[in-house]
Amino acid sequence: MAILGEIRNRPWLLMGIIAVAMLAFVVNPDSLEKLFGAKPGVYGKVNGDEITKEDYDDQLFMLQQQAQQQGQPTKGLEEQAWQLMVQSKLIKQQFDKMGLTLTEDMFWNQLQFDPMFAQNKENFDDKGNFKVQEIKSQVEQMKGTNIEVYNNWLKTRKSIEYRMMARQLFANVSTGITASKKEVEEIMKQRDQLADIDFVKVDYAAYAQKNPVKVTTKDLAEYIKAHPIMFKREASRNIGLVYFPAAPSASDDAAAQAEINKLFSVGSEMSGGKESFQNTTNDSMFIALNSDLPFNPQYFPANQLPAAIADKVATASIGTTFGPYKEQNFYVVSKLIDKKPSDSTLSRHILVSYKGNQAGENETRTKEQAKKLADSIGAVIKANPGKFAEFLKYSADPSSAAQGGSVGWTTPATPFVPEYLSFLANNGKGATGVVETQYGYHIINIEDKKAGTMAYKVANLVKTIKASDKTETEVYTKATKFIQQVQGKSFNDFANIAKKNNYNFSNPKEVGRFQGQLPGLGTDKDDEIIGWAFDKKRKKGDTDIFAVEGTGDRIVAYVNGIQDAGTADPEAVRDQVEPLVKNKLIAKQIVDKINAAKATSLDQVAKMFAATKQSAKVNMLNPQVNGAMEPRVAGAAFGVAKNKLSNPVEGMTGVYVVLKKSETINKQPGDIKQMVEAITGQNSQQFGQSFLKSLQDNADIKDYRIELYNQASQQ
After folding, report:
1. Which residues contact 631 (CB under 8 A, 6 or more apart)?
2. Pfam families of this UniProt entry (predicted)?
């Protein structure tokens, strides 16, 4: 229901209003039982605790609604939903282990601190008191009048409860995190100490230029083996992609320009060349018949109009045309239809629906009964606006009813139904009236008005610059030829042929099954390509070609690697690991050369590598060495005896040899008590951030989703 969704954001009830498609997989229960040894509809387990399809779908539904409210994409949220479900289970398990309980009274008492409620001033009265009884009443009202919205509230409540348990859990575990006086004294000492050093740095990058080092797959594997937690991975795929966009050619561009010029000044074919955009007397109808984008009757401020006309409309007269001009991949001719001040209006409404209209899904009253009821309510409110709240129980818009019927401040540009906006535009503060729309009868009361800037209604005749059939055929031919060239070839061949021909090549190396979009691609085929790559029949080296709906674009995909859940495949994380491993290999060469030379001075080390002797002051808590963060070098500076040469130190940016000249104290302000409090708070925060990760790293998590999706796709 457009108006129910568009009549302003409802901070919490809107969770039950927006219609978002949920996942619906038809899976054979018997085959699931056989596959997983689990009950049908179980997507996974966390330490034996089941994540059901219902739980997962509810969480995904919540994320999709939130994304839609914020104008964000609703696709690709499956992995986020899964992670939230896993974390919620871990929190609940730990919560129960600690003997903690979330009672009904505690839920309502703590509700005011949840972000969903705390960030909305309308949930608090003028004195700052939380309107808990009012919200309770609204929930009870939903339970009795709209069971669908009430069920969505229960889903919302479940998420809130998990957040409450998390806050209580973290508060309890972090209470024991403290800093002792002795610990703080040592930290303050390290903070104030400075070591004055001379050093020689053999830079990794400079050394590698003269002494190239190749990192093998074995080198990567050994590093990963030494850091198993860091490289623990879910199942992923390494996919090569070549994108063949059906970009309009110069002749396609010229064709679109010629077409809009004809419609603008010559005439449309439908009218036999008699009616053009210049001489038409019905702009909206002409656009409906001839434009690639529909007519928008809303008013917009100048800064929201196309850049080509934004600075011209203020001085233009009604009926003035602009263009044709190019806007992204469109040719546009604009005509100024009207201009007027964009007043802001604060209004409230009661929506009386009836059986058969867009808001009357569960209604039994007829249209005639609805009109009679709306007229009678309107007459009472017109005579006494103070009685408005008494009739909210009749409203078919529970989200606005929860806010006293308010739809907030609107302007002519607000995306409401035209009849509603027309009433606001043509009536003043205090006016009450009944307006009919496709959703029923609205009893509207205007609470306030503010004068605004000038707004403009513009008719835009638009023609898309799109690829012709000839261009699409050329793209298809090119993509088909490419896939024939690479079938059965190595991935290096796939990449090299693509690069040689200057094709749009990319290689996302760790694609998750439920991430929704492919980096560097972003088409409506992304999810299908990911599903194809994760099919259990898929093998390394498989290729396929995909057509992007409605565009003529083609994508050729190549499976370069199959990563099952576990330790990361070395080649899949080469980009991440190779610089680290390369530095370690270079460091070993440098250290071996220094040790073999038995260097006894910095000058000797500097001469060996054509490096420069440098000086710096180093601090343990802020271990910067001439701009580079080097904690090991700082440790060596305080660990070596005065006027003694350190052993070679494998740093972050190079190998260092250090000579300490002296130590000094640079006393900084701050007493012990202040530092204890600051460090305790810092430790507590760091512990809270690490606690959940630790629970997840050490949990027994079973994810059945990939198998389930594969099973569903084969039925």
Report:
1. 623, 652
2. Rotamase_3 (PF13616), SurA_N_2 (PF13623)
